[in-house]
Design brief:
Elements: E1 21-22, H1 50-53, H2 68-73, H3 79-89, E2 104-114, E3 117-123, E4 133-138, E5 142-152, E6 156-167, E7 170-182, E8 189-192, E9 196-197, E10 206-215, E11 221-232
Parallel strand pairs: 4-11
Antiparallel strand pairs: 1-8, 2-3, 2-5, 5-8, 5-9, 6-7, 6-10, 10-11
Length: about 240
């Protein structure tokens, strides 16, 4: 999700997530523990161009793909690289992994966290996009988003999240966030975005459409999902 400028009873609207925080059970991606960052709204162009929406763009040549075993064996004489790989791969049993060159990332759920209400867990549909309205948010409320996902087969490099939001056909926000590099493991990774505040006021309320994507450095897309959500005067009854 994400927003940009809308009116707050005539003022500018505020919008949605960007930076990151990975839980301990996942993988620290460089942020120190402490206060959560808060993304300020920024002005977005009124309409999305093809370049802006798909500027994952031309595929970057990152060299030949390698299986997990080949990754682990390569550069064994480099002590710092060896330690980094051991930390990244954790307890992966090299004797049990296959020879797959392609990592697999399965996005399992999106959770909306807010102090105003119980956590709202939204499972990702197995096939297609959510039908109808996916969720509703209360205007002026504080909340953050948390993803859960699983990595298998191989290391996924440069996994990143992007989200574009429209209201009445007008693009109101575009967010891109690097999540990091993750090794395959049985445990589920979780990644939490910084706290946001939904816009408020008569012009902020209503229906929004959004598109969320997860891609890696090879521009392999693991999830593209289109959905709609509402901003209302209050949380929906549970």
């Amino acid at each position: 999700m994400g927003f940009d400028d809308e009116s707050k009873e005539g003022n500018e609207e505020k919008g949605l997530p960007a930076a990151e925080e990975t839980t301990p059970e996942a993988q620290e991606d460089g942020n120190e523990a402490g206060d959560k960052p808060h993304r300020e709204m920024r002005e977005a162009p009124a309409y999305a161009s093809e370049e802006e929406e798909d500027d994952e763009g031309a595929k970057i040549n990152l060299g030949p793909q390698r299986s997990l075993k080949e990754h682990f064996e390569k550069d064994k004489e480099d002590e710092s690289l060896r330690r980094w790989k051991e930390q990244l791969l954790g307890g992966v049993d090299m004797d049990s992994v296959g020879e797959s060159l392609e990592p697999d990332v399965k996005i399992l759920s999106l959770t909306i966290l807010s102090p105003d209400r119980p956590d709202l867990v939204l499972p990702i549909p197995e096939t297609g996009n959510p039908k109808g309205l996916w969720f509703s948010l209360k205007e002026g409320s504080h909340y953050s988003l948390k993803f859960s996902f699983k990595v298998s087969n191989n290391i996924v490099s440069g996994l990143r999240y992007s989200n574009t939001v429209w209201k009445t056909g007008v693009k109101v926000d575009s967010t891109k966030e690097m999540l990091g590099t993750f090794g395959p493991q049985q445990e589920i990774y979780t990644h939490e975005l910084p706290e946001e505040t939904t816009p408020s006021g008569i012009f902020a309320r209503g229906s929004y459409s959004a598109r969320t994507k997860f891609v890696d450095d090879d521009n392999k897309c693991y999830l593209e999902i289109n959905y709609t959500f509402d901003i209302k005067k209050d949380w929906p009854s549970t």
